[in-house]
Amino acid sequence: MSRRKPKGRDISGWLCIDKAVGQTSTAVVGSVKRLFDAQKVGHAGTLDPLASGALPIALGDATKTVPFVQDGAKRYRFTIHWGADTDSDDADGTVIATSDLRPDRAAIEAALPAFVGEIMQLPPIFSAIKIAGERAYDLAREGEQVELAERPVTIASLAVVDMPDPDHTVIEAECGKGTYVRSLARDLAHRLGTRGHVSALRRLSVGPFDETNMIPVTALITAREEGPAPELDRFLMPIGMALTALPEVVVPRNDLPRLLRGQPVLLRGAGIPANADPVHATHAGKSVAIGAIERGEFHPKRVFKA
């Protein structure tokens, strides 16, 4: 019996969607899949419905590079609303504690260094973390007691960028994988002797994707209304966009067929390390594989279509 042909176009590349407040990451992926008529689409890191900003979307073979984007640094701009804790640590939750104390800028800036570096952080109970196979937010919504463990996260920098009024402070953060900004806002408020939650959140960048290459879904919808799905391909960034932090080796034409079959190839030329992992292999400026160099040979682990 013949295998059923996958639906949609076999296209590969990256988009960085400027997600709007109210949209879910899953819904954005579905919209991109439909608009591009693509066979395979995925995203590199969930963004809460409350949040806006950078949501990198991978199509086709680019999905093989998603972990390299997820592991990249992220930058956020968020607003803390002082005086109230919520059960979700954001504005969508129910208020569970209040305080009349409003910290001034000097106090906030003095407290920030305690949250820079590798710290232990307790994730919000309304999070996508799994407990015995169930999402924490599903258990919390059903009224079940949710107990999560603290875990290490890395925060590279924190800075106050605005204080529009005594009730609100805007902060920018650069942090690593797994950091919850909602937890950061809650814990900062508690350290200052008050309560607080995130009332606005925007992701400014994820790895190499930032506001310079974001595009809203509405722009894709408009382009799709004006022409067929292939017309949208002009918005795609190459697979290698996700691999800019990796060392690169160039594979000559004669060795390309062997590599594309998943076989190792001997690397030639000055400056090639004897061993390295992971490594990005290219040919004629195009990404062809991710792999490792072992004793001067490149061993492909993920091969992209020629």
Keywords summarizing the entry:
about 300 residues; 10-stranded mixed β-sheet; alpha+beta
Any overview of this molecule?
- The protein has 306 residues and is an alpha+beta fold.
- 18% of the residues lie in helices and 36% in strands.
- The strands form four sheets. Strands 1, 2, 3, 4, 7, 10, 11, 12, 13 and 14 form a ten-stranded mixed beta sheet that branches.
- A hairpin with a 2-residue loop joins strand 17 and strand 18.
- Helix 1 packs parallel to helix 6.
- The radius of gyration is 22 Å and the shape is globular.
- The two termini are 28 Å apart.
- The model has no long low-confidence stretch (mean pLDDT 92).
The percent range for strand residues is 35-45%
Distance separating the two termini: 28 Å
- What is the radius of gyration computed over CA atoms, rounded to a whole number of angstroms? 22 Å
- Please estimate the helix content: 10-25%
Give a short overview:
By secondary structure, the protein is α+β, with helices and mostly antiparallel strands.
Secondary structure layout:
Blueprint lengths: L12 E7 L5 H12 L4 E3 L8 E8 L6 H5 L3 E9 L1 E3 L8 E4 L6 H7 L5 E5 L8 E2 L2 E2 H6 L9 E15 L2 E8 L5 H11 L4 E11 L2 E2 L3 E2 L1 H10 L21 E3 L5 H5 L4 E2 L8 E9 L2 E9 L2 E7 L3
Parallel strand pairs: 1-14, 3-12, 15-17
Antiparallel strand pairs: 1-3, 2-3, 4-11, 4-12, 5-6, 7-10, 8-9, 10-11, 12-13, 16-19, 17-18, 18-19
Helix pairs in contact: 1-6
